[in-house]
Amino acid sequence: MTDKSNTLLVTCALPYANGSIHLGHILEHIQADIFVRFQRMQGRRVYFVCADDQHGTPIMIKAQKLGRTPEDVIGEMENEHRRDFAGFEISYDHYYRTNSPENREISEKLYTILRDRGYIQVKKISQLFDPEKKMFLPDRFVKGTCPRCHAEDQYGDNCEVCGASYSPAELINPRSVISGAVPVMKESEHYFFDLPKFEGFLKEWINSGSLPKEMANKLQEWFDAGLQQWDISRDAPYFGFKIPGTEDKYFYVWLDAPVGYLASFKNFMASKGIDFEEFLQESSDSEMVHFIGKDILYFHSLFWPAMLHGSGCRVPNHLYVHGYVTVNGAKMSKSKGTFIKAATYLKHFDPECLRYYYASKMNGRIDDLDLNLPDFVARTNSDLVNKLVNLASRTAVFITKKFQGKLAASLDNPELLDSFVAAREEIAAGYNAREYSALIRKVMELADDANRYVDEKAPWVVAKDESRNDELQRICTTCLNLYRVLITYLSPVLPKLARDSAEFLKTDLSWDSLDTALLDKEIAPFKALFRRIDMKSVEAMIADSKQDLQDLNAAENKTAAKKGEAKKDGQSGKQSDGKSKGEDAAPGIITIDDFAKLDLRAAKVISCEEVPESDKLLKFQLDLGNGETRQVFSGIKSAYQDPAALAGRFVIMVYNLAPRKMRFGVSEGMILSAGPGKKDIFLLSADEGVKPGDRVS
Asked: Which helix (DSSP H) or strand (DSSP E) does residue 651 occupy?
C-alpha cells in the first residue's frame, strides 16, 4: 500500500440481487473489512462503500416468476444483504443500490463522453430470440447439447462437462430456459465499447502495480489473444437503464454495476457535504481500491479502467483479487448442505469464529481457501478460547477478588511486554499487504509466549500465600497487559471481541496506545468473552442449510400454485384469502422458527417529523449503527403531538421487512408500538445501554 494519500475509497464487488449471501461471498467482505479497520486504526480517512447489483435479465425473469415487480424483489433482497453484512460486523460507511438516480446519472455521463469521443460503435448482430417470450436470450438463458462432447443440458456459453467455450448458436438442439421454445436467429442493432483502442493504456496500467505480478502475467494471455469490442447494450424487455438517445436499448448490467461503486460513494458524499467531482478527477490524489473475486477479473482489469480513462476519470489504484471458497476440500454443494447462507451460519455461530478462521488462511495472493469444518471448530477453540481469551480469564479473577479490580503500579516482567509491543511493525506490514495468515501466526506465537509465562508464574499457586500478594498483582497485571496488546493486534479481525475487551479493561485499544502500559488502574469484573464451539453445531448448521434448499423449492412451488389460484379467484370474483368481509382472523400459533424469521433491531431516532399530506403518519430517520440509516413511516401521529421531541430516543423496528413504496416516499421497515389506538399508542423502547443496530433476542 502506498502512502501518497491519506484518503482511501475501498469497495467490494456488488452482490447480485438475485439471491442470498453465502459463505463464499462473505470471504471478500471480511477480507476488505479487516483491511479497512486496520487503515482506520492508522489514522487514514477511509470510505468503505458497497451496493446491491440490481439490474439484468435474471432479476426481470425472477420477478415475473414470482408475480412481483423487479423493484419489490430487489428491495427485499437488499434488506437481506444489509442484515447479513451487519451480522458479520462488516463496517460499511454506506451500502446503497445500483437502481438509483446517482447510478443512472453517472452511467449516462460516462457513456455520453465515450460516445462523443468516438469510443462507441454501432453495428448489427444476430442473436437467438425466444419467439414465445418475444425477447433476445442471453447466453445463460439458452441450453442444449454441447457441440464438442455432446453432453446434454449445457448453457449457451460453455460446457460444464468438457470445459469448451462456444456461442449459443453452436448448441445442438438449443432451447429457451425461460419458455422451453426453440429459439430462432434474429438481427438487432447493438452498441459496442471499442476496447482495443485502450490496449496501450491497459498494458501500462496493469503493469504499474495495480495488480499483483502473477495476475498481470495472466492478463497478458488476453492481450495475446487480441482484445475485442465489448457489447454494452441489451434489447427490451430488460430491467435496467435505457441508453440515452434510444427507444428500446438498455445498458448491459456489467456497464452500470461497477459504476455502482461511484454512485454509492456519491450518495454518501452528498449526505456529508463532500465534493464528489473532485474525487472523480484524473488528478485526484485520493486512492481507490477494489476487492474482487478472480471470476470477475476480466471486467475490472479491462473494461472498467478503460471506461474510466476513456471518459477522463481517475482509475483504480489497486485491484485486490482473491480465490474461491471450498468446504471440506470440495466445491460448495446444496445437496450436501455445504452451500451455506450467511444467515444460516449466524443462527449457529458467532460471526467472529468465521472472521478469524478466514483471516488465519488469507494471504495477498489468489489462492482458493478451504473451509474445513472440523479444523474450523478446532482452531476456534484452540486459538480464540484456549490461547487468547483464557489468558485474560486465568488472571483477571485474582485482580477482582483480591485487589478490588485494581491493577498493580508496576509489571512483573516489563521486558516481555516490550517484546510484544515491538512486534507491531511486523503485524502492521501483514495488514497492509493483506497477509493475514502470517500476522495471525505471529500473534499466536506471542499468545503461546504469554501462556508459557502464566504457566511458569502459576498465579493460582502464588495466590495461596498472602505474603506474595504484591507479586500476584504484578503477575496478573503483566498478563492482562499482554492480552491487551494481543487483542489490539487482532481488533481488525475480531471487532466485537475487541469492543468487549476494551470495556472489560476500561481502556482504549488504539495502535498509538500500545506504548503505554495499563498500570494502577481499575478494570471491570471479567465476563465470558468467547465460548467454545463443537461439531454438533456444525451438523445442525448443515441440516439447516439442506432445509434452506427444501424451503426455497417449496416456496417456488407455492408461488406457482398461488398464481394459479389467484387467477381462478380473479375469474370467479372470490376473495383470495377465503374470508368473508368483516371476519376477524383468530391469532395463530407460530413456532420458534416462524419467530426467528423476524429480525428486530434497536434503532436511534435521528429525526421525526409530520407528514403534512397524511392525518396518521410520522416520518422517522433512524440510525442502525455502522453508518446505516433508514427512513420509516409510522401511523402514530395521533399519539405524538411533538414528533421532534422523539429525536435521540431508541425504538424497536422490524429490520427485515420489505420496503414499501408510499405516496410520500419509501418506508424501509416498521416501528413497533402498543396500545388500543388514537392517543393511546406507545412506542416500544429499550433499557439504557442499548446501541443502534443491536438485535432484539
From this structure: strand 650-654
- Residue type present at position 51: A
**pLDDT tens by residue, 148-171:** 999 999 988 888 787 777 888 899
Residue with cell 489462492: 367
For strand 7-12 and strand 287-293, is the pairing parallel, antiparallel, or unpaired? parallel
Report the alpha-carbon distance of residue 117 to residue 119 in Å, rounded: 6
List, for residues 181-216, the tens digit of each pLDDT value.
999 999 999 999 999 999 999 999 999 999 988 888
The answer to whether the predicted template modeling score (pTM) of the entire model surpasses 0.70 is: yes
Q: What's the distance, CA 443 to chain centroid?
A: 26
Phi, psi of 424 (to 5 degrees): -65, -30
Q: Is the dihedral of CA 229, 235, 238, 241 positive or negative?
A: positive
End-to-end CA distance of the chain: 41
d(CA 16, CA 668): 20
For 245, counting Cβ atoms within 10 Å of its Cβ (0-12 exposed, 13-18 middle, 19+ buried), the class is exposed
Rounded Cα distance, 12 and 265, in Å: 12
* Segment holding 532, helix H or strand E: none
The residue count for the chain: 697
Question: Under a CB-based contact definition with an 8 Å cutoff, are residues 47 and 268 in contact?
Answer: yes
Residues whose CB falls within 8 Å of the CB of residue 38, separated by 6 or more in sequence, listed in order:
428, 431, 432, 492
Reference 630, options 655, 664, 650, 598; nearest CA is 655
Answer for the pair 24, 84: CB distance below 8 angstroms, yes or no.
Answer: no
Nearest to 639 by CA among 610, 667, 600, 613: 610
Calpha distance 280→307 (Å, rounded):
13
How far is the C-alpha of 86 from the C-alpha of 554, rounded, in Å?
Answer: 28
Cα dihedral 297/299/303/304 (nearest 10) = -80
Rounded Cα–Cα distance for residues 479 and 502 (Å): 15
Q: Can you state the angle between helices 390-403 and 436-457, rounded to 10 degrees?
A: 40
